[in-house]
TrEMBL record:
NCBIfam families linked: sigma70-ECF
Gene3D superfamilies in the cross-refs: 1.10.1740.10, Winged helix-like DNA-binding domain superfamily/Winged helix DNA-binding domain (1.10.10.10)
GO MF terms held by the record: DNA binding; sigma factor activity
Organism: Natronoglycomyces albus
Single GO biological process annotation from the record: DNA-templated transcription initiation
Identification of the protein by name: RNA polymerase sigma factor
SUPFAM superfamilies, sorted: Sigma2 domain of RNA polymerase sigma factors
A Pfam family hit: Sigma70_r2
Sorted UniProt keywords: DNA-binding, Sigma factor, Transcription, Transcription regulation
Length: 201
């Protein structure tokens, strides 16, 4: 990843963050600019999940509606790209899974009920505490690690083409950068009181 590519990627995140701030204040031109900027990327994410043209269009439109509804909850405006792509990807996966289920389950038969949850209250609490620790560490992590880890953690099969385009990175540099970012994340997590609860990991 060249310095120019990195700078371009960071500049894109900063520009989109400013557009989000303006859109929050009621600037329709800023909102349109944000849609024009990220629309093609979101479309590609939806189509990559195997959706039809119509389904992809619906998912992308719904993502924008969700953004307007929840944008005050986005604490870091720089995260708007990851927020939108994650929303599109999850909704697309949900639709694809539902369509697959409808095509494979006989309408007169019902699948076995899911197994009951076996996690204890303590285990659930530990997971929540560790999740908060991860969020705190990521909030302190600079670009491009924060955005890269957000993309990768949100997808079962990360699309490196989409990540490269969005972050301004070379596709071949994503893997090595991911390794360095994860190593740094692990080191920082060891310093968090909610991570591991004093046990060696």
């Amino acid at each position: 990843m060249t310095a120019m590519n990195t700078e371009d990627g960071i500049a894109d995140f900063q520009r989109r963050a400013e557009l989000l701030k303006l859109a929050r204040s009621g600037d329709r031109v800023a909102m349109k600019s944000l849609v024009d900027d990220l629309g093609p990327l979101l479309w590609r994410v939806a189509r990559y999940q195997g959706l039809s043209i119509d389904a992809a269009a619906d998912v992308v439109q719904t993502a924008w509606m969700k953004l307007v509804k929840h944008w005050e909850s986005i604490e870091e405006p720089q995260a708007v790209t990851a927020w939108l792509t994650t929303t599109v990807r999850r909704d697309a996966q949900r639709i694809r899974t539902a369509a697959r289920r409808e095509s494979t389950i006989d309408p007169v038969e019902f699948p076995d009920p899911p197994s009951p949850l076996t996690d204890s209250v303590d285990e659930q609490l530990i997971r929540k505490q560790e999740h908060r620790a991860v969020r705190r560490v990521l909030a302190r992590t600079g670009s491009p690690c924060r955005e890269l880890l957000a993309y990768i953690s949100a997808a079962e099969r990360p699309d490196y083409d989409v990540i490269a385009q969005s972050l301004g990175m070379k596709k071949g540099s994503i893997g090595p950068t991911r390794g360095r970012c994860l190593a740094r994340l692990r080191r920082d997590l060891q310093k968090e009181p909610d991570w591991g609860h004093g046990e060696e990991r």
